[in-house]
Amino acid sequence: MKKFFGVLALVVATQFSQAAAEDGAKYQTIANPQPTADTETIEVLELFWYGCPHCYHLEPEIEAWLETKPDDVTFVRMPAILGPTWELGARAFYTAELLDVTDKIHAPLFERLHKDKKPLRSAADIKAFFVKQGVSAEDFDKTFNSFAVITKTNRAKQARDMYGITGVPALVVNGKYRTTARLAGGDRQMLEVVNVLIEQERNAGKAAAAE
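The structure assignment produced for this chain is given below.
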């Protein structure tokens, strides 16, 4: 009987080890965990680029996930800058954010680039787009060239080093774990992995509070 339970324990341990390995293959641990904006909640960070078709196709999945996002989870977008041409989109994003018009700019900008196939190659193009969405030219100029936008953009340039990314889209949970469509097996699977990691972080927080 003792031998039976020993074999059973070995089988269970082996299965657990395999499951852990499979889960681990769906995400990666960030070498140097990054601080989050709100330590009272679990942060989910999306790293994206407006010019990325994969980021564009992920958006509907993100929007669906946001409809059921738990209250203890904060969602943050960060436009990664992995090349010189990516900076313009990052400044557009932060300009919209500071003007509180992200809902008027974010999805339509993706649509213009990927559905309408109309590129935005300069600050003048970006300005014309904002004005078309109802933002005044004066507000755009003042914000697009502001110290706040430049500071946020410079931080976005550090995304590669901070989160260890080599491409987008990528999702980061609580500054500790990174997943991609390639690792998870698809866009929807990325968010399934995120949900698992959220629960993992939630349980870790409860355990720490109980100590």
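Interim note for the steering committee: The chain has one domain: 2-210. The mean pLDDT is 90.
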